[in-house]
Amino acid sequence: MSYLGSIYIRKMRLKVKVPELLAPVGNRDSLVAAVEDGADAIYMGCNLFSARAYATNFSEEELEEAIDFAHVRGVKAYVTVNTLIKDIEFEDAFDLLHKICNMGADAVIVQDIGLLNEVRSRYPELPVHASTQMTAHNIPSVEMLAEMGVKRVVLSREMSLDSIKKLKESCGIEVEIFVHGALCICYSGQCLMSSMIGGRSGNRGYCAQPCRRKYGLTRNGQEIETKGDYLLSPKDLCAASLIPELIEAGVDSFKIEGRMKRPEYVAGVVRIYRTLIDRYMENPDSYYVSEGEAEDLMQLFNRGFTSAYLEGKSRGMMSREYPANRGLELGKVIGYNRNHGRVRVKLKRSLTQGDGISIGETGYHATAIFRNGKRVKKAFPEDIVEILSPLVKKERIVFKTSDSSQMDVLQKTYSSPHPLRKIPIDIEARIKAGIPLEIRMRDKDSLSVLVSSDFDVEEAKSHPITPEKIEEQLNKLGNTVFEAHNIDVKLEGNVFVPLKAINNLRNEAAEKLAKMRSEIYHRDCRRPALPNIPINFHERDILLAVAVSSLKGVEEAVLAGANAIYLDRFSELDFKRALFLCRKHDCKLYLFTPRIVMDSEMADVLKILDMSSECDGIVASNAAVLNMASQRKIPMIADSTLNIFNRYSSSFLKGKGCILSTVSPELTLKEINEIAISFESEAIVEGRLELMVSEYCLLAELLGCRGPSESACKKARYEFVDEKGFSFPVITDEHCRTHILNSKKLSMLGKLQDLIDTGVSSIRIDARWDENNIKGVIAAYRKALDTGKIVERKGNVYTRGHYYRGVL
């Protein structure tokens, strides 16, 4: 490259926007840590409707104080209302949004499509960010959100740098991505595993983290040996080395995960990423991450680091042997002192009393360290030490999971009474005999306050005050958030002013300016009433829909009495034959669309949309398809993967052209009724529910498969088996994505009347994953619908899902 060319590139780089550094805040200490250590913005949740329900979170009063705290210090504050909302909760959610709007939050982060739509139309003053729980992972889905008035989209973690850059160039909307912290193995917003296993929904903030549990792998029912037992546990994301590429891709906000992490973690990670961003902006050509910075990030928390999907699909993303924090490798076990109950370790790095350590799955603190039989406070690399510990085997790796000295340093950043973060201000003082003393303070945002003494300045009888003394007093801003940038003292004549008066007036001005800096964000938002959605229920014949993925399935379904076929994973020839069969038997035909579709795969979706003109429409499984089909006025059935949890979501989807909405399988019968009495609704009654969809090919590394050309996953039946013995079928699709199915089939055949009584218009049998005995199952439902005679399915291989128990 020529010299002039390199200069041109550097100039182009200098035009890039400085990305926002967005920090997680789970409690008051984390709030202070994030702000003091350099965050540009924070995100936090209230006690209600937060996707991190197990974090400490904030009461409404604490939330307002936190927003004000951030604003005084020049930091933006975003509030999460990022769970799915039930109809019965909508009023409470709207009340909370009204308060958040008045508090002056810079944005609210939302998942529920119905809530998002209502917020944008009824609280136009309140900016909305679309949560990563909305599974926005392609251009059409982001375009739809932008059309709805969303200011920023938190993109799915599965997107690559290249796809992020193209999306940003195409859409123009603000984009936010995660750069550090825990990863979900499933696409966010698409996971049902926690709720189906234990009733705690990840879509409601109560994820029980089933991906961090032990699983075995079976092939055709026979156990396969694997390296590690935590087969669904990913490493942690660390994009520190990719900051230049992310900035140049146009990413607007770098998000750190960790609302449930300790404040020292927040302080340390924010501090390092602040340094890295500033380093790049100061000199793009000499960007680096030092060894010390990398080790500090690892010491704070890691399950092993990965760039995940940012550099494209890759392997080595899983932490199968250990699903918890491993920190840094401390040393290796070389023996055990049974007499004193102490493990003997040869150190690779220093160890201080109070440091956290782990051996295998056992974690504790090094409360006592012994070297050569003597107790010491600190040991060094190559030392052989003994530490109080349960019995462990030789050769085990010992990890240092926390460094007490690192914790002490970071703790001071949020516990010290002396703020680290200061706002520069200009101070002007006017002192003249016969009029009150005046002090004006002005910040960098041109906010200013003027305070005056309640007395007139007197002429000095002796020892008049000097400009230097006045400036000295004005400069003493102490524990306020301000620091003097310029001080202008306008002193006329020889006057006397008590120092205490100057100090008091200075303090009053600082307090008023701080108050102004927070109150300027406060709003007076009107509390609009929620729209009245009328009951629109009438007696109707219940339609029987069947989802299949083969031509044989289509034939058996129409012959057994299906009213509608949802065809998935089909060729053009299969479509033509399926259409002929459906028309012959007076059965409707809808084409399934993918749940996940990257922009590079969008051509396949466009083919489906083109083909749908010959049949009755499509099943819209993601927001991109919803948007594109709506623009083309293609009749749609909204799939359950769109997370239809309330009437407001159904109302929005109807407005987009959906003739039917398939309700979330996490709803109870009573909750379904709230939707079905107003909108044409469908419920899934039979089949294996898909619990997870992952961009990662989980079987590839376990089986040594090199990709689609080998397709080892297609040559046998694979299942993950949990510690209770439940088996979860694992299926890999043509894009090497992993689909994990429920261990039990859903069946409502024996309780079908209860479901019919909710008012649904249609029931769906989902046989896409298993078409065995499909004809008999459909016939049984057909008979139940036609005659009212219900036959109970027997055996413990069936479940009624959440229709009776619900979710947290």
Written overview of the protein:
The protein has 23 helices and 42 strands. With about 800 residues, the protein is of the alpha/beta class. Strands 1-2-3-4-5-6-7-11 form an eight-stranded parallel β-barrel, surrounded by six helices. Strands 17-16-22-13-14-21-18-19 form an eight-stranded antiparallel sheet. The longest helix is centred in the middle third of the chain and has 21 residues. The protein starts with a helix and ends in a 9-residue tail after the last strand.
Per-chain topology:
Elements: H1 3-14, E1 20-25, H2 28-36, E2 41-45, H3 60-72, E3 76-81, H4 90-103, E4 107-110, H5 113-122, E5 128-130, H6 139-147, E6 152-154, H7 161-171, E7 174-181, H8 193-198, E8 215-219, E9 222-224, E10 236-238, H9 243-248, E11 253-256, H10 263-282, H11 291-300, E12 305-306, E13 328-337, E14 342-347, E15 351-352, E16 356-359, E17 362-365, E18 369-371, E19 374-376, E20 378-379, E21 384-388, E22 397-402, H12 404-415, E23 423-432, E24 436-443, E25 448-456, E26 458-459, H13 467-474, E27 482-492, E28 495-496, H14 499-519, E29 543-548, H15 551-560, E30 564-567, H16 572-584, E31 588-592, H17 602-611, E32 617-620, H18 623-631, E33 636-638, H19 647-655, E34 658-662, H20 669-676, E35 681-687, E36 690-694, H21 698-703, E37 718-722, E38 727-732, E39 738-741, E40 745-747, H22 752-756, E41 762-766, H23 774-787, E42 798-799
Parallel strand pairs: 1-2, 1-11, 2-3, 3-4, 4-5, 5-6, 6-7, 7-11, 10-12, 23-27, 29-30, 29-41, 30-31, 31-32, 32-33, 33-34, 34-35, 35-41, 40-42
Antiparallel strand pairs: 7-10, 8-9, 8-37, 13-14, 13-22, 14-21, 15-20, 16-17, 16-22, 18-19, 18-21, 23-24, 24-25, 26-28, 35-40, 36-39, 37-38, 38-39
Helix pairs in contact: 2-10, 2-12, 3-4, 3-14, 5-19, 6-7, 6-18, 10-11, 10-12, 15-16, 15-23
